[in-house]
Here is the input.
Amino acid sequence: MHQVPEKAFANMCVITYIIMVNKINKDNKMIHDFIVKRKSIRAFDSEKIDDEKIYSLFEAARLAPSSLNEQPWRFIFAEKSDDAPFEKILSILADANKVWAKNASLLVIVLSKKDLDRNQKPNKHYFYDAASAVANLTFQANSLDLYVNQMGGFDSAKVQELFNVPEEYEPVVVLAIGAEGDVNSLPDPYKERESLPQKRIALNKILFSNNFDEPHSLLLKNFQHEEIVI
Ligand SMILES: Cc1cc2nc3c(=O)[nH]c(=O)nc-3n(C[C@H](O)[C@H](O)[C@H](O)COP(=O)(O)O)c2cc1C
Here is the structure.
């Protein structure tokens, strides 16, 4: 009988695996609901979020880990009902983001302190730490049936100027937060974009062993991939 060489067989397994994992498996019971549920929505419903819930978002952010426990994150936020402060944050967004972010219940500017409090030397991890805080905030939001869309499309210099941000802080990202609204309220092409599947790079492209680019043997194991939902 013709034998498939071991290496060719391994490659076949990897290829099969790539095909299986290219789309997000939303039915994977191993992944926590809050992670599975998370998505960057653009159709918000503008409802006021209870103060207690808003408070819990920032409390969750505050509990994030940070290098040397420096906690470099800072937040400026406004509720939609705040009118002028909300419009002020909206004004720093790229036009493509303004279109839908105007319907969020909450807009948050995330900033991070560039230097260490302890010795004023550069904090190599200031951006990384702010992202950890945003991740905590995001999953807390998901646990409350709220969604977060992070935006890199904003004018950093304008934030600095309009909000009197000291030089040592850098704007990192702006967050639009709220409950999911009606997709049909969005203009095209935003409406179509909402129904596109969430896609991810296959695990074998990002998970290595021994050397960079050498897929980890974990990927050759026979995982259960029940139904693949996109
Ligand atoms: C740092 C960062 C910046 C982003 N900037 C924008 C943005 O300016 N506008 C936008 O509509 N989405 C933005 N996104 C959302 C991404 O497009 C989204 O996370 C990605 O397409 C994956 O989709 P998902 O979050 O629904 O899984 C940003 C996300 C991150 C993490």
The first helix runs from residue 6 to 21. Helices lie at 6-21, 33-37, 51-62, 84-90, 95-101, 126-143, 156-162, 190-194. Residues 1-23, 224-230 have pLDDT under 50 and may be disordered.
